[in-house]
Design goal:
β1, α1 and β2 form a beta-alpha-beta unit. α7 runs parallel beside α9 and α8 packs antiparallel against α9. It contains 9 helices and 10 strands. The strands form 2 sheets. An 8-stranded mixed β-sheet has the order 3-2-1-4-9-6-10-5, sandwiched between helices. Strands 7-8 form a two-stranded antiparallel ribbon. The relative contact order is 0.13. It is globular, with a radius of gyration of 19 Å. It is α/β, with parallel strands linked by helices. Helix content is 41%, strand content 17%. The protein folds into 2 domains: 196 residues, Spore Coat Polysaccharide Biosynthesis Protein SpsA, Chain A (Alpha-Beta Complex); 76 residues.
């Protein structure tokens, strides 16, 4: 088995069938499988998954019940994988045609890869755009390394054995942390533009705000973890203060729908940074 596609899911009844249909349309000359990791779903997700067994003979469904959270579901799915390499994707996104072949072939050459994100297919115009559309994302604080979303990563099982599990203590940004740890061991993260993932973004202002706030809070935690001892954190605090200034300047954008979503995202980022610094002690000074 060359490749295992890992799809963790929790109450994904509204989108899982669309992802499975996209996977059913994939073609690759090498043997590959799909591993669905059920993380205590209580809706119809499991029934939907079971209904695809005939259509997807390479489908396996496993239980990831011991702990709630995507890190555990990912770790469980990866350990159960029979492939030499794994490619991760989320149950609320859709892989584009050719994704499996592009990821699988990239992993024949590289040990650690990430695909390209497209936001035009599944989102309205005011929600489009992503940092991973044209290359890897870049973190703005130490260790200053590239990273990629967890639902876009692929790596060899041997790399996972050396890097270790996705961190259960990080319900958010466990993927970023994994990227940092892998690169610290000398594994370079390669961008695969021919492998495209259609990402579904949060479409309500409340969920948009909540996601941004959570990302920002856990960025503070990662900054504390990776910030070099003795290095000043002035630019981190300056960015936080400048964020409030930028929010005030951008108030006129609230008149437009796209502006409202961007403003709420920026507000969530500021609230998350504040929460992170108050609860977790900020970054080293």
């Amino acid at each position: 088995m060359k490749l295992s596609v890992i799809v963790p899911f929790y109450n994904a009844g509204e989108t899982l069938a669309l992802e499975l249909e996209a996977l059913a349309a994939q073609q690759w000359s090498q043997p590959w499988e799909i591993v669905l990791a059920d993380n205590r779903s209580t809706d119809r997700s499991r029934a939907i998954a079971e209904s695809y067994r005939a259509k997807l003979p390479n489908l396996r469904i496993i239980d990831a019940f011991e702990r709630q959270g995507q890190p555990h579901a990912l770790n469980t799915g990866i350990r159960a994988a029979r492939g030499e390499s794994v490619a991760l994707c989320d149950a609320d996104d859709e892989v584009a045609p050719g994704w499996v072949a592009a990821m699988g072939e990239a992993l024949e050459t590289h040990e650690f890869v990430a695909c390209r994100i497209d936001t035009t297919k599944l989102n309205p115009p005011w929600l489009r755009g992503h940092d991973q559309e044209n290359g890897l994302q870049q973190i703005w604080y130490p260790p200053w390394l590239p990273h990629a979303g967890g639902g876009t990563l692929g790596f060899r099982k041997t790399l996972f054995g050396k890097v270790g599990d996705f961190d259960h203590s990080l319900p958010c940004l466990h993927d970023t942390d994994f990227c940092f740890r892998a690169q610290a061991l000398g594994y370079r993260l390669h961008f695969v533009p021919d492998a495209v993932l259609h990402m579904r973004k949060r479409d309500s202002l409340e969920s948009h705000y909540r996601q941004s706030r959570n990302y920002a809070e856990y960025n503070v935690i990662l900054a504390r973890k990776y910030w070099p001892h003795g290095e000043p954190a002035a630019h981190f605090h300056q960015a936080f203060l400048r964020g409030w200034y930028d929010l005030a300047l951008s108030l006129p954008r609230l008149r437009r729908q796209s502006g409202r979503y961007q403003w709420v995202w920026n507000l969530g980022r500021q609230a998350g940074r504040l929460k992170g610094m108050l609860i977790h002690g900020g970054v080293p000074v």
